[in-house]
Automatic annotation (TrEMBL), chain B:
This is Cbb3-type cytochrome c oxidase maturation protein. It comes from the Bacteria. It comes from Candidatus Scalindua brodae. Keywords: Membrane, Transmembrane, Transmembrane helix. The chain crosses the membrane at residues 6-26. Signal peptide: none annotated. Pfam families: FixS (PF03597). InterPro entries: Cyt_oxidase_maturation_cbb3.
Amino acid sequence: MNDSAVITKAENNSAVDLKDTCYTCTHCGSAITDGDKAVFSNNGNAFCCWGCETVYKILKRGTFSLINSPSTSLPEYDFLDTDSFLKDYSVSIDNKTGMRFFIEGIQCTACLWIIDQIPDWIPQVENAHLNMSQNTLFVSLKEPGYFGKVASVLSALGYKAYPIKSLDEAKHFQKKENHQQLMRLGVAAACSGNIMLFSLSLYSGLKGQMAGLFGYLNLAFFLPILFYCAQPFYRNLWRSLRAGRPSIDLPVVAAVIIGFVLSLLNLVRGNADFYFDSLSILIFLLLASRYFLSRTQQTFVNSSYMQTFIDSQVCQRWNSGSNEYDKIPARLLNVDDKVLIKDGERVPADGVVLNEWVNINPSILTGESLPQKLFKGSVIYAGTQVVAGYAKILVKHTAGNSRIGQILKKVEEQIYNKTPLISLTDKAAQYFSIFILVAGALFFSFYINVDPTEAVKRTLALIILACPCALAFATPLTQSLSLRKASKKGYLIKSAESLEKLNYVKNVFFDKTGTLTQGQFEFLKWKSPNLEESGNFSPDQETLNAIYSIEVYSQHPIARTLVKHLEGKCVKKLPVHSLTEIPGAGISGTIDNDYYRIVSALPDENDKDNPDIISSLISIYKNESLIAFACLGDRLHSDAKQTIAQLNSMGIKSHILSGDKSMTVSSVAKKLHMANEQFSSNLTPEEKNEIIKNFPESLMVGDGANDSLAMSSDTVSIAVQGSVESCLVAADIYVTCKGVSPVKDLILLSKNTFGVIKRNLVFSFVYNFAGGLAAISGYISPLTAAILMPVSSLVVLSSSALGTKFLRRFNKTNFSLNN
Amino acid sequence: MTVLYVIIPIAIILVSMFVFFFLWAVKEEQFDDLETPAHKMLIDDWNEKPGKVKI
């Protein structure tokens, strides 16, 4: 894929037309619902994912072999094989080392097939096991030192791979816990199913000796449920009692124990009133809803990957003893060390620049889309990337104490400090359960003087009937169904809590570069020096050759965009003399005694043609006279404007927070019809955090490390596709498809989910109160209560499953296209 | 009704077999990944592969 001319929509205008005409994948034939995710090849074929594209290519060419093309390891993945990194991230199974990756971009069987081939391409790989439900890949090696190569191959195939920390104690425990839950659920299902079977014959009038036998069989099947399956309820109750909090498990445990004792007494006395059936169904349904909920809540990439990334990177330190550079991991750097950082590498520590100048990409810290030129003596921050030339720096703060290190530390602290918002229903159910028990006790102590046997019966009926388990599992069930729907669409919500918070969002804060815009430049058109809209002006071939020859030497994104555009135009590379980079402005050079100067870049205020493109003008001077403008643009996501309008109509205010220059930000805001007070520019990560703190009930949408601090504060946050790792860790929700329309989808999903929950709650409150009153006045026997209770749970269950019209349609239609 | 004396033990044996095999399957981690195997069976084994390592 690296050499083949596959292009995505962002990079080529013709692909935009394809997006509107192609609706099925050329390889697997499935409909392409999300045009932004699609992959387009040069000859006009559209594919749903990279996997399909690769498989199609292999099938077409026959001889095509990937063994040769992605053979070289990319240096950016070298850190995967360093000892310090392996210490935290590798797992050892049967004396082989393995590593787990989170893979972005897994779509269908083709992806599975292509990843299954990795052991054939890299013979040193023992096994590659992809888990599609968690999007994780486990790779084990025959000999060490090839993880970097695996990651390079994956990135050559078009997937993004993030290493995940090895299964530590906590993860291992979690896996065990999952197994335990599932085993309890299975046992509960088997036992309660059989209890129901025996109870059926008792209900239909079985009498005599056989009835006694069936009663004891019921008891026999109930014992595993009582002593094994219901354990979590006892444990939770014990834990919450020790913490002095009311617990939803209180009436469940009370009902189970009272019901069991009473049934046992009745059984021994030869009485046919037992409640094994309803109690076992109660336990089974509760276990099932809790299991689904815990399985749905995704826990992934929650390691401080970025920190390790900087820590473990190999860098070159000047050794004054041997007068050469030693290669050491960045972790071992000390203050006042001299370090050499080459083109493309990340700066391992905060420090001061020692050489004349260096171009860096500061986007990780500031979100600024353009490279920055630093001169001798200026401060350079860890995490930024050297894009042109090289840097020699004097270390002032090592990685942990660096600015990015501090930000990451704060992010991690805030993740642990997040005060869990105990959800409304949990609280209601907790107090309701206490209320029921107190009411039951009061009623019992009052009525026992009137009629002792009736008092026992009515109290038990009250506790069983009014037990707020319908209420208790209505919420987790509805939430887990919604979380499932969201994750099927590619929205990974880390906790049900953030789904809840989305419901109350009043202000949405967007980052600019990479969130509202695509964060990449594309070439739009040439313009004549007098800027008149004369259609297709183009500079002559000589100028094009000159521009190409000069820009080919620059690493600046604008230069790269121009070079990419010109490469298809049969340009020649001419010899250039006295090539100079003009700091913060552009590049100049002499070709055949003509002096050319190419300077960037002002937002183009006159451009009214395309409302989706934030364009900038690049002026091209020949011998100091302006000969042409190149018009470059950073395209807004196609759904940005629509999403912001829709959010507005929902009564939610949108804001832009950007670290970029105010001119660019205001031109974005203007295109999106946003008022002046709705955007702020030139912000540091700390300032972004301050602004958000002033707005309660806000939502942060971003993609960069500069957003992660704001994301980890008390607000709910969404990381869009292509976000940096620290952002993934800090954000509550991670979206794996392009654009910002998921923001609106998620808010609507949350609002609808809570609509259903409210409906369930109203129903269960009415049912509980009416039933409770009926039980106290003696209209309902414990047996009827035991039948009514699962029925009420069933009503809530079907209400949650049916949801609303919106929820039913959520996965079927693509709202960003249809609405 | 005497048939119940045959049917009930059979029911109990079936249940214990279900529970036994279910617990075995959970411990074998067969329920940890429910999606990949469904896709995997669509792929032909076209060359000899080393046996999969347990993860």
